[in-house]
Design brief:
The structure is a single chain. The protein has about 250 residues and is an alpha/beta fold. The chain is built from ten helices and nine strands. Strand 2, helix 1 and strand 3 form a beta-alpha-beta unit. It has a single domain, classed as 2-enoyl-CoA Hydratase, Chain A, domain 1 (Alpha-Beta Complex), CATH 3.90.226.10. The strands form two sheets. Strands 1-2-3-4-6-9 form a six-stranded mixed beta sheet, with helices on both faces. A three-stranded mixed beta sheet has the order 5-7-8.
Length: about 250
């Protein structure tokens, strides 16, 4: 399980990198377990000044790995365990102690787009693309996006992104306030680490207080939103329609 992410620390910069490049870093149980553990430990690590979240290969994260779905309807208990872990990752990114710099290349889909939006400052490669496919499969979004998106992109744009499921360019996401900076693809990681280095130079306690304060103040309703997301995901993921759509996709 440990090889599904890479986790390194250099000069105070913790890199957490999704490492399933052959699957475009698609999310399965092993990935969520490893990512949750990595962020939890990084937030508690005094030597970690800032976190860079990225993916290996051609994509940041292609979303949920539908090929890992066992087929048939899933139990509510199994779904809830998985969703709770996804929501825990969002808490670590959004409400944790460390500033998180996203480096987003290729595709950011579903959970991948949620994680990109969760980052404090996300640098996107200019050719990157993103969308939310969840409703297509009879599922629901997580990651606190029902609180974060309306605040940053507006309610109508949030409904467009989730309901219409259209693929968005990095430039459009920047216009919507969901991508912080868009750079040439070959400059992506250099830019992300340059920003991380600036944060790493700051006094740790001041950064910790800033991170804790600003996101809690900005997203005071995020816990309520995630609770609603969790219940909606459990209902949708255990429905026969969802199982049928996913099974049809896997044929």
């Amino acid at each position: 399980m440990t090889d599904v992410i890479l986790n390194t620390l250099t000069d105070g910069i913790r890199t957490i990198s999704l490492n399933r490049p052959e699957k475009l870093n698609a999310v399965n149980r092993d990935v969520t377990v490893a990512v949750e553990q990595a962020f939890r430990e990084a937030n508690d690590d005094e030597d970690t000044r800032v976190i860079v979240f990225r993916g290996e290969g051609r994509a940041f994260c292609a979303g949920y790995d539908l090929t890992s779905h066992g087929g048939g309807q899933r139990s509510a208990q199994d779904v809830r365990i998985g969703v709770d872990r996804l929501q825990a990752i969002t808490r670590h990114i959004v409400l944790g102690n460390k500033v998180v710099i996203g480096a987003i290349q290729g595709w950011a889909v579903g959970a991948g787009l949620e994680w990109a939006i969760n980052c404090d400052l996300a640098v996107w490669g200019e050719s990157a693309r993103a969308f939310f496919p969840e409703l297509e499969w009879g599922l629901f979004v997580t990651g606190g996006v029902t609180a974060i998106l309306p605040r940053n992109a507006g309610l109508s744009n949030t409904k467009e992104l989730i309901l219409l499921r259209e693929k968005q360019s990095a430039a459009r996401l920047k216009e919507l306030g969901l991508a912080w900076r868009v750079v040439p693809d070959d400059k992506l990681f250099d830019e992300a680490y340059a920003v991380a280095a600036k944060v790493a130079e700051l006094p740790p306690q001041a950064v910790l207080d800033f991170k804790r304060t600003i996101n809690r103040a900005a997203y005071q309703d995020i816990e309520s939103a995630m609770a609603l997301e969790t219940e909606a995901t459990v209902r949708s993921a255990t429905a026969a329609e969802s199982a049928a759509r996913i099974s049809e996709f896997k044929k």
